[in-house]
Specification:
This protein is α/β, with parallel strands linked by helices and about 230 residues long. It has 9 helices and 10 strands. The longest helix is centred in the C-terminal third of the chain and has 17 residues, at about 165-180.
């Protein structure tokens, strides 16, 4: 299980995260909701070690991550699909996928067939440059690259942003499949409530660096959640 406990994060004098706490379990999707600029991406960056925290504790599978650099967190089973995808435009689809080999033992350095089952377009375009793909195809590539790493904790930062509806459905089906495996904890940052509501088991809403509302699928008060998102 992922455990984030009373985490504070600063960018210089700017207080980006304020005593944030949440958990995420394998076989579940934890959705982080809120407007732009409220700290959602900062929270994912803190979990993956891209931004040091000032206070609090982040642990995964009972191991404290605070002092681990990102590559060590990747070896511990974390994978991040960043906002904006950040694929390598001059590398082929195959080469982009193979960059996910970095944290793996040599015997695991192959691309799982399930990636091409989830995203068949990647198999069809293996030798095309990443930069030649559409935005939605690049998003599928970014998720596929993360899955190559065999993650047990998958962090997704707004995977539907700027994506056409048909590919949003493909991404939703992929997330649901990964959740149902029961072996991966998924943390999904999302602005669109409808997409999150279809997939989520737990929901938190952030505002000004703090969590202002939280619920499960069963305890959700949709009116209260929408009010929190509109703050």
């Amino acid at each position: 299980m992922l455990s984030v406990e009373v985490v504070d994060l600063y960018y210089g004098a700017s207080h980006a995260l304020r005593r944030v706490s949440l958990t995420a379990a394998k076989g579940e999707v934890t959705c982080i909701l809120g407007r732009n600029g409220v700290g959602k991406t900062s929270l994912l960056r803190a979990i993956f070690g891209l931004q040091p925290i000032r206070a609090g504790r982040i642990s995964w599978e009972n191991r404290v991550l605070n002092d681990l650099p990102p590559h060590e967190r990747a070896r511990a089973g974390l994978a991040l699909v960043p906002q904006g995808r950040e694929i390598f435009p001059r590398l082929s689809v195959l080469e982009n996928l193979e960059t996910g080999f970095a944290p793996l033992a040599r015997e695991l350095r192959h691309i799982p067939d399930e990636i091409f089952t989830l995203f068949p377009v990647l198999k069809d375009m293996l030798h095309r440059r990443g930069g030649d793909l559409s935005g939605g195809q690049q998003q599928q590539l970014a998720i596929g690259r993360a899955l190559v790493m065999r993650p047990r904790l998958l962090l997704l930062d707004e995977p539907t942003e700027g994506i056409q509806p048909s590919i949003i459905k493909d991404i939703g089906r992929a997330i649901a499949y990964l959740r149902n495996l029961g072996k991966i904890a998924v943390v999904l940052v999302e602005q669109y409530l409808d997409f999150a509501r279809e997939l989520g088991d737990h929901f938190v809403v952030m505002d000004r660096g703090s969590i202002v509302y939280s619920c499960t699928r069963d305890t959700m008060d949709e009116a209260a959640l929408k009010r929190a998102m509109a703050i």
